[in-house]
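Entry 14. Two folds queued back to back today. First construct below, sequence then structure tokens.
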Amino acid sequence: MSSSTTQWPARTAAGTAWVLGLCLIVAVLEGVDLQSTGVAAPRMAREFGLSVSQMGLAFSAGMFGLLPGAMLGGRLADLLGRKRVLLLSMIAFGVFSLLTAQVSTFPMLLAARLLTGLGLGGAMPNLIALSAEAVAPRQRNTAVSVMYCGMPLGGALAALIGVLAAGDMGWRHIFYAGGLGPLVVAPLILLWLPESAAFAAEASRTRSPDGPVPTLRVLFGEGRAAPTLQIWLSFFCTLIVLYFLLNWLPSLIVSRGLSRSQAGITQIFFNLGSVIGVLAIGMLMDRLRPTRVVTAVYAGIAISLFMLAGAGSMVWLSISVLLAGMGVVGAQSMLYALSAASYATAMRGTGVGAAVAVGRVGSIVGPLAAGQLLAGGASAATVIGASVPVTVVAAIAAMAALRRAHTQ
């Protein structure tokens, strides 16, 4: 049997650990690339002479690519299989990350990040589907969280590379690491990652002579309109806050008088907090009443933002950033699991891909809005405080989607 169709026996302990471990590795590589622009931003701004508004465009360029990438990657996952689309996505974001390290002008930088985003966007729906389908439904939140903790680990690795890469030209090393990693790992995924057994079984059982179910029917047919829109709204608002922090946090900390190395250290705290939050929240969602967990998570995000807005010393900044990472990245992982649970296997890639894509709109809006506020003279504390109402909207939408999912 070829490597592209190899499958583990359904949900064995060895098969589950193998799938989640490989997906974790890919998620680490995604995390490196997603946070590379934010880590490199201060030195990139000096080399290219970028204004605050141009930095916001640089942050958002990759997000523009993530949106169609997630939609296309999710749809193709239901048509071609999760593994094939994941491999193509890895190769794409690896190649274009390497090209980012070679740019010499601002337009080239924007183009390279846009194309990198296409690959990154296509990978995530497939990672979520592979993780969710490797376990029983009662373990889905934990499985997705195990995979997704690779994202903040990768972000911490990117921040560490940024700290170690001395000199104004050292920012390019972050993109070299982000590009070489997926190209080295792709052959291992080809040989050793099994296709989802649940997807293969469902595809053979439900193949229709009329072709695949149209995307709009997947998202809005048979009573799925309300939960789809609620998940989308929560994704959108949560990622506004997340990507504002991911992209602007180092620059905001430097603007308070701290050094670039101190800013890099606080970003490592953000990502370490994210790992703790993702794993803890995923396990709690599978063991406690989910509505209570969701309420506590979003309340924790709001509290951490208030702390971050008022923090002045390195100690308080580190604590605030740690708590913010626990909450906001944990919330994103929680939403990934919720979106996976809201769609049947045959349409899960399409549903999750659409949710990820809508969330990416928030990841575009967040950095751009923060850039405009800062360019208009707003303080760092004002910009951070403006994220609190957005967090409240995300919480309300997530609660509505979760209640509907548990009443069906």
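Second construct, same run, same settings:
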Amino acid sequence: MRHADGPSKLQQLAQPLLGRCRFPQPPGMVTCAVSGGPDSMALLVLATAAGLEVEAVHVDHGLRPGSAGEAEVVQAAAAQFGARFRSERVSVAAGGDLEARARVARRAAVGPEALTGHTADDQAETLLINLLRGAGLAGLAAMRPGGVHPILELRRSETHQLCDDLGLEVVTDPSNQDPRFVRNRVRNELLPLMTEISDRDVAVLLNRTSDQARVVDDWIQESSSAAVEPTLASSLAAAPPVLAAAAIRRWLRDDEGHPPTAAEVERVMAVARLEAVACEISGGRRILRTAGRLRISR
């Protein structure tokens, strides 16, 4: 961990935060998805401070002028903290569902096991987005702490402060203010309004709700896993609705782990109950039934 101010300052700043992080135990190698923003840069810093060997991966979507130069910011930070660096470029065509398609392309480029810099504030936003999507209990459970989300218990203010205290150059993404994207409106409009109305830090309440929903959802998922085969139409049709829905959500999570909406689950159940021969769901996927089995066609 090479830093201009020496490792002592890094450790002094990182230690109070690492107690609420869930990084793998060192020694070990991790890949971090680093866009150059404060959250992902803090992820990079904290992973190195946790004693891990780190590869920082920057993905350029080519969606705005100058985006390629952001890789240089990440590369400099990686070198400063003794991490390896890799740059990837993906092509995402303009059009509908741009945010979701860019997310899928980014995850494919960095790899399914790459760590991300999602924070407790992102968790609150995700819960509300899933609520608006009608994603049910699994949606309220939102992201699972640990695994690919090691800093999910930190606040965005803390990751930004860490970067400021270390004097790190970070990237400001203007698309984070674009009201075309649902997450931006939730972040910049809905959450501030909820905080004003309740006169409380709503993110804390939403994260608590997510934790409680996850306990219940885990029990339902465990029960459905033992009792329901999601690709067998007769198994779905015969199961209690709550277990059948859980099995479908487990089967049809997208590349980022987002569960299907309640409406999509019901469409799949209609196929299982022989009320329809096929249905469309998100991600360009079509669910078909052949000889009593459900399958995914893209």
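Quick look at the second one. The CA atoms of residues 67 and 217 lie 39 Å apart. The chain is about 50% helix and 10% strand.
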